[in-house]
Amino acid sequence: MAVVNEAPETRNRMGFGPADIAWAALFATLAVFGPERSPTVAALLIALAALQVLEARAPALGSVRGSALFTAGKVLLAYVLIGLTGGVSSSYYLLLLVPVISAATRFGPWGAAWTAAGAGAAYLSFLAFLDWDRQFIPVDQIQELTMRVLFLFVVGFLTQRLAQQNRQAAQRYQAAAEKLATADRDLQLAQAAVQRSERLAALGQLTAGLAHELRNPLGTIRVSAEMLEKKVAGDNAVAREMAGYINAEVNRANSLITRFLDFARPLPLRLIKTRIQDIADQAIAELERRQPPFQITVYKNYSPEVLPADMDPEWMQRVVYNLLLNAAEASPAGGAITVKTRPAGQQVEVSVIDRGAGIDPRHRESIFNPFFTTKSSGAGLGLAIVSKIVGEHGGAIAVDSTPGQGSVFRVLVPIDHRPPRENRN
Fold first, then answer.
1. What is the pTM of this model?
2. Is 184 part of any domain?
3. Which one in 17, 155, 175, 275 has a CA-CA gap of 20 to 30 Å to 382?
4. Domain of 127?
5. Is the previous residue joined to 292 through a cis bond, with omega within 30 degrees of 0?
6. Coil, strand or helix: which one is 117?
7. Are residues 413 and 276 located together in one domain of the fold?
8. In whole angstroms, what is the distance from residue 29 CA to residue 49 CA?
């Protein structure tokens, strides 16, 4: 059995949306109906459209440098296109807005301002190509050029503000959605915990009553078997063997009744501030010492933000160990188990994840009930005791499982334990 740290996964998604189609349609319209319809102009428009559409899809744009290269490329293509279609008097000067808008949505206000300044300087550079001995610019045209350059800054500023507000709104919506999802999950866990607690309380009372009622006849049977063993003749080996079997089965039944009574009694908790990571490490170490060892790998995925919580270390170690043991028994040779911890509001969460056979959906609501088991051996008290320990801590336990893919057991324990109201002074 091996223990390693779990490596994070990264994924890239690519796809084209309505905005990409709109950009492509815009540049196609310019190529067909624009003031200049030469093959060179059409090629430049297609290249500019390709940069604009592919900009959000290129893996290189994960860095500021990649975004800056795409923006510079669009400024260069727009500059060449304007130069081929009349320079400072070209109708295509508005294409300089494309890199300015892109920079405003990707960079901060300073990035948008520098891009607008660069695009404006590129546009005004065409003034250097005029023959000032034969050409001049009227005053009203100077005002027009000034307005065109200032327009780049205005559009860049407004676009950057709009993009920033959209990002902030998206962050607020995402945070609200995460809070709602967490609240919904906690509510489901609480409802399931209440239902299990009610069932466990009723079954615990029934178990205690049955255990006390069964011990009296078992004691009579045991005494009778011992007397029979003493009274039978020494040469009656069969009778002595049967009496021995009776004694052994009575002892086994008494041991089982003792376990039932332990389950029915309240747990004496000794609560101290404990790191759930330390408890998980101790449970993993205990599983490693088991003989014969399991042929599995245990991955640790601990969040450094988890705070110590009020727990009984011995009982909580039993919880994690029982979940690990079940996961190891459900996993094939060479399989993997992940132990994950994370903060969950005012609670800490520890999850045990396996990639085994999973749990039949018909059994999912019964696995925490006493005496329920799908194994060939065992009394079916393992997960029931786990649920009882977690409940005594004021926490909750839940399971997500997909047959054939594995199971996830989640345990939530409050950071600050609050005893039930009836136990408070």
1. 0.48
2. no
3. 275
4. 18-136
5. yes
6. helix
7. yes
8. 11
